[in-house]
Amino acid sequence: MRPTNPLGDLQVDQFVAQYWQKKPVVIRQAIKDFSSPVTAEELAGLACEDVVESRIILEKDGRHPWELRSGPFTQRDFSRLPATHWTLLIQDVEKHLPELTWITDAFHFIPDWRLDDLMISYAPEYGSVGPHKDAYDVFLLQAQGRRHWKINTRIEADAQILDNTALNILKDFEVEQEWILEPGDMLYLPPAVAHYGISLGDCITCSIGFRAPSHRQLAQSYLHTLIEHIQSDKYYSDPDIQTQQKAHEITAHSVAELKQIVTDYLSQDSQWLYDWAGTLLSEGKKSFQAEGPHDVHDMTAFINNWQTSMVLYRNTAVKFLYIMGNDCVNFYIDGQHISATTGLSDYAEWLCSSLQISWNELDGHPDREALLALIYDFYCHGFYYYQ
Fold it and tell me: Which of 171, 176, 249, 322 has its CA 20 to 30 A from that of 309?
């Protein structure tokens, strides 16, 4: 059930070279013998919880075509749904059900900072969210039942959208390619590929989405951080000013001097640049922001509790990343920066990827004391916990 390669007979290197952000591909039996990790009833239960982001989309029999309803829902809401033509979608399932993290972890041939979430949808006969385009990469893994997928790679960016609905449903959609996916089959779609999935009977689909910050988001974040690092007592100077006949003209020379000042700042390669990247890329949704334990134990009590529970668990709701420095390893977790000595560099990937750490793994470890201090720091931030 837990594959090292979720691409079936397609090799990772081949997929990245030929398909990633280039063109769609259907992978038959991407995960062999795959079955849905959750039932429709469990998804409905999640949709009734306040902390879970959930939606129901009704193509028909709602207040208007393609009606969007947002959760949390009640049992009565589900009992009043029509027999067909609707879809339930649950976001961030792997954060609410950490035991499903293995699904997203299987896609770690793509950098983890690109991973957004595992969304799981349920639909009865003819359920759909309509023809649309997304601004991110997505792997659509069929978990239960069958789904009829139709795509079009040639729809323009300014294609018309249906009126009177909160969904970005394409008004005109012509089928370019189509497939029927069964459990274990997977469709990969690069950004901006129009797609239209229709359930053929009861259907559950896992969507593993990979988002990227927009250029505007990057520029805003970078410039905000840059301004904080510019000294306020530095001013434009022109000791080599050129004489000019027209005093009111802004010359190309002046513009070039101004541009050079800005360019020099934009081309900096200092530590704060790496800290900016690590902080930005590890930031998660506010609803999943880590909180330290209410009663923070001292190191001795922490060790005693760990020894008692035997296992320390990683907070799978937050992003764990790191950047190697010259004399240290910098961890960026949930938008926070924690630096550790370079002696712990070899353990960075292990600390970020291990879903749980048993006490026995540290007992007698050559770097036990340094690792204990770092893990204790992570615990105080809410990045690890014991049960």
Answer: 322
217-to-92, 220, 222 alpha-carbon distances in Å: 22, 5, 8
pTM beyond 0.85? yes
Q: From residue 164, how far is each of 66, 74, 126 by CA, in Å?
A: 9, 26, 21
Q: Report H helices in the chain.
A: 12-18, 40-47, 75-79, 93-96, 101-105, 215-228, 252-266, 271-282, 299-309, 348-353, 359-362, 368-381
> Does 260 map to a domain?
no
CA 75, CA 26: separation in Å to the nearest integer? 36
Give the residue with greater pLDDT, 345 vs 29: 29
| CATH code, domain carrying 293 | 3.40.366.30
Question: In 178-208, which positions are buried (b, 16+ CB within 10 angstroms) versus exposed (e)?
Answer: eeebebbbbbbbbeebbbbbbbbeebbbbbb
SS3 57: strand
Q: What is the pLDDT of residues 162-193, one digit of tens each?
A: 998 999 999 999 999 999 999 999 999 999 99
In whole angstroms, give the CA distance from residue 181 to residue 170: 22
Domain presence at residue 23: yes
pLDDT at residue 140 greater than cutoff 90: yes
* Pairing verdict, β 137-152 and 311-314: unpaired
> CA-to-CA distance for 284 and 333, rounded, in angstroms?
9
Q: What's the mean pLDDT when you consider all of the chain?
A: 93
CA distances from 223 to 107, 135, 159, 176, 217 (A): 32, 24, 33, 42, 10
Q: Retrieve residue 349's tokens.
A: 């990937």
d(C-alpha 102, C-alpha 3), whole Å: 9
Give me the domain span that covers residue 353. Answer: 287-386
Q: How far is 239 from 148, CA to CA, in rounded Å?
A: 70
Q: Are the CB atoms for 353 and 102 separated by under 8 Å? A: no
